[in-house]
Design brief:
Rossmann fold, OB fold (Dihydrolipoamide Acetyltransferase, E2P), 31% helix, globular
């Protein structure tokens, strides 16, 4: 079963979505919330695998909710407005559904989530050798359209999620590959790479300076000049890793 919560300030919208989700036997709705603050508090005691999330809500909107949560599961935005679609995929949403939700689009979104969760579970069960953990000395093949590269991972300074794709930064290039950042994170050696936040994995050897940032987080400046924010929880892990 896929543990699911719904966050939407409109009660009728929550009811309609719950009614549609009854057709999916593997979707288990474990909670629903009418605003972001309630959901942030509720998530402390829940471990959902999927969130159906409205964008425009009183108080914090859907994007601000995601910024306030340390660990975010798979997210499907459900909204009456189409102008936020690009931003939704920039924060690695699995899908973006417009109200009123069409059954076929909901089915597509749920299928994407099923595939993602299945891949994550397979990787979790696999040993490091079975997962094919990649060290920074390994070389990988990268293809973006007609362009191809054979790259040593120590030269990759940053992986950046863009929807269902990941942008790979190395030398003067930044191609896009069709890959989940979560699954990529499980394949990269944690000795060489660090998951900074929901959108970024950084090469530790490319860190130039580290600064204190808001709410106990850190701001990491890479040697190429790019600045990456690290959440409070991840900041603790980075400090532990880089301390003597």
């Amino acid at each position: 079963m896929i543990k699911t919560i719904i966050i939407d300030d409109e009660r009728l919208a929550r009811q309609e979505l719950k009614s549609l989700l009854k057709d999916f036997s593997d979707i288990e709705i474990i909670a629903e919330f009418g605003n972001a603050d309630e959901a942030i508090e509720g998530l402390k005691n829940l471990e959902p695998e999927l969130i159906f999330l409205d964008i425009q809500m009183p108080g914090k909107d859907g994007f601000q909710f995601l910024e306030s949560v340390e660990k975010v599961p798979n997210v499907v935005f459900v909204t009456a407005y189409d102008e936020y679609a690009l931003k939704a995929f920039e924060v690695s949403a699995m899908d973006y559904l417009l109200k009123p939700v069409e059954e076929n689009r909901l089915k597509e979104a749920v299928e994407k989530v099923r595939e993602e969760i299945a891949m994550e579970k397979e990787l979790e069960k696999a040993s490091p050798d079975e997962r094919g953990v990649l060290e920074d000395t390994d070389q990988v093949f990268i293809k973006d359209g007609e362009k191809c590269w054979f790259v040593t991972l120590k030269d990759v300074r940053l992986f950046e999620s863009e929807g269902n794709y990941v942008r790979v930064y190395f030398e003067g290039f930044k191609p896009l590959i069709l890959k989940s950042l979560n699954n990529l994170d499980k394949r990269l050696s944690d000795k060489a790479f660090f998951r900074a936040n929901r959108k970024h994995i950084i090469n530790i050897k490319w860190i130039d300076t580290v600064e204190s940032w808001f709410n106990g987080g850190l701001l990491v400046n890479l040697k190429d000049g790019k600045a990456i924010e690290i959440s409070r929880r991840q900041a603790v892990k980075l400090k532990e890793r880089m301390s003597l």
